[in-house]
UniProtKB/TrEMBL annotation:
Residue spans crossing the bilayer: 28-48, 60-85, 105-128, 140-157, 169-189, 209-232
Transmembrane in keyword set: yes
Transferase listed as a keyword: no
Keywords: Membrane, Transmembrane, Transmembrane helix
Taxonomic lineage from the root: Eukaryota, Fungi, Dikarya, Basidiomycota, Agaricomycotina
Protein species of origin: Cylindrobasidium torrendii FP15055 ss-10
One GO cellular component term noted in the UniProt record for this chain: membrane
Disordered: annotated span: 245-274
Name of the molecule in the record: Uncharacterized protein
Signal peptide: none
Superkingdom classification of source: Eukaryota
Length: 274
């Protein structure tokens, strides 16, 4: 009778909840603090726009990616906190490892967007949109910097400062599909709200460059994905991260020590006798 093949274990080396540089408890604290910061920035941005502008809030790719970052830091922060402070049978655990596979896959896809979309947003915003911050208020500058500069910094902290694995190549397809769906949303916003989210999507302003802009952003996503994938693999090599070794280490640390009864222990006198 054939031996049943064990089910594939999600994140065997606890990569999503650990860091090569800091303890899981500090990583959890950092992620949760970032989650609070991003949440405040989102609420302020939504409230600051007010009225007619707030109706357009969810039409901007910047805001949608920032919501994704908010989701990531809350989810990963809570999972990391559970891993850092909770033990089951002496072993560290976190709920996502036992959750249904679709939720685990969603977490992987979310990680792929976190590792790439903020960089794309930052590049497009500062290179193409060329904002003028001279006339903006202090609060406006803070909101702009939070969503178009700090976002990339937070992305890099996850890429460089944690053991998060390199995103699967299949998730690149998911990223491209998301961008394609957003393109439809952008033109739907024009139809329903009467405005183009970005000027380079306006055929009258972009002219013959419209297709180039759209394809260029897709190409930028592919390039950023490849670069981030390479950086993560390099980080894994430099930190000598091996998920199988990490899993064995966790099991070893969780194994209770064998304590011999006092009458079975050997004294120095017994050891000296033949």
């Amino acid at each position: 009778m054939a031996t049943p093949v064990p089910a594939r274990l999600f994140d065997p080396g606890f990569a999503y909840v650990t860091s090569p540089f800091i303890r899981p408890s500090f990583l959890a604290l950092w992620r949760l603090l970032v989650a609070v910061y991003v949440t405040i920035a989102l609420i302020y941005s939504l409230a600051y726009g007010g009225g007619r502008t707030s109706c357009r809030f969810f039409s901007y790719f910047t805001h949608l990616t920032y919501i994704g970052m908010c989701s990531w830091f809350w989810a990963s922060g809570v999972q990391t906190a559970i891993y850092a402070f909770y033990r089951k049978g002496g072993k560290p655990v976190y709920p996502l490892r036992k959750w249904p596979r679709p939720l685990q896959w969603a977490h992987e896809c979310l990680w792929s967007t976190i590792a790439t979309f903020p960089i794309v947003v930052t590049i497009v915003y500062w290179a193409i949109l060329s904002p003028n911050l001279a006339e903006a208020t202090t609060a406006g500058v803070w909101g702009t910097v939070s969503m178009h500069a700090v976002n990339s910094f937070l992305c890099l902290t996850e890429v460089l400062g944690t053991n998060n694995p390199a995103p699967r190549w299949l998730t690149l397809l998911v990223d491209i599909i998301i961008l394609a769906l957003y393109l439809g949303l952008a033109y739907l916003s024009k139809k329903t709200l009467g405005f183009y989210v970005y000027d380079f999507l306006d055929p009258k302003k972009a002219g013959n460059y419209l297709a180039a802009y759209i394809v260029g952003i897709g190409v930028a996503e592919v390039i950023v994905f490849v670069v981030m994938w390479g950086i993560i693999r390099l980080r894994q090599r430099l930190t000598k991260w091996d998920p199988t070794v990490e899993e064995r280490r966790q099991d070893t640390e969780a194994t209770p020590e064998l304590v011999l009864p006092s009458d079975m222990s050997m004294s120095d006198d017994h050891k000296s006798k033949p």
